[in-house]
Recover the amino acids of this structure.
């Protein structure tokens, strides 16, 4: 089992000096406020891991501490309904996190990666949710990196994947894909909308 102590005492000291471990903290890069949190809500029946929150009051308190002026939110665990669908059909995301994201924080992007089987991009029309976990459910690194660009001044966003991992034959038919394209200023053929 990997614990918070392992991360704080073993992993963090070995990070390259240019890396910043965001443990419930904000980094400002080119005027973009990025808040990161390593926490994830417990998944009933699963083994216990480090940085795990109990559902309910504990997770509600933790997520209420995220600053409301966050542009990009990084969390280990997903909110319910976005990047949280397990192979058994259960949604493992956190209701409290979704509430904070949609009602109070309203970031442009919410990047996460806990649930390997839910790699991909979704949107609620306000926030783009990116489950960028590169490993599959067997912990094999098979997913492609997700790259996005955000210009704070113009509010322009660009989202791309090196090689999309869509599970349908034509991604342009996928509603989340189309919504993200429109939010990012592209039409269905990925031509920039003026």
């Amino acid at each position: 089992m990997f614990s918070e102590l392992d991360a704080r005492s073993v992993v963090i000291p070995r990070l390259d000096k240019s890396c910043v471990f965001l443990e419930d903290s904000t980094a400002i890069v080119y005027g973009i406020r990025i808040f990161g949190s390593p926490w994830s809500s417990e998944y009933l029946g699963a083994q216990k891991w480090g940085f795990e929150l109990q559902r309910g009051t504990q997770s509600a308190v933790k997520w209420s501490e995220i600053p409301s002026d966050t542009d990009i939110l990084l969390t280990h665990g997903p909110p319910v309904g976005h990047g949280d669908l397990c192979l058994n059909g259960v949604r493992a995301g956190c209701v409290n996190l979704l509430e904070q994201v949609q009602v109070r924080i309203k970031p442009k992007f919410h990047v996460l990666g806990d649930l390997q089987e839910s790699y991909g991009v979704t949107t609620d029309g306000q926030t783009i949710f990116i489950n960028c976990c590169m490993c599959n459910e067997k912990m094999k690194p098979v997913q492609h990196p997700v790259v996005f660009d955000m210009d704070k001044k113009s509010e322009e966003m660009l989202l791309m994947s090196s090689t999309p991992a869509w599970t349908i034959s034509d991604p342009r038919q996928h509603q989340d894909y189309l919504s993200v394209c429109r939010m990012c200023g592209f039409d269905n053929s990925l031509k920039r909308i003026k």
Observations:
- Helices lie at 4-11, 57-64, 95-105, 175-183.
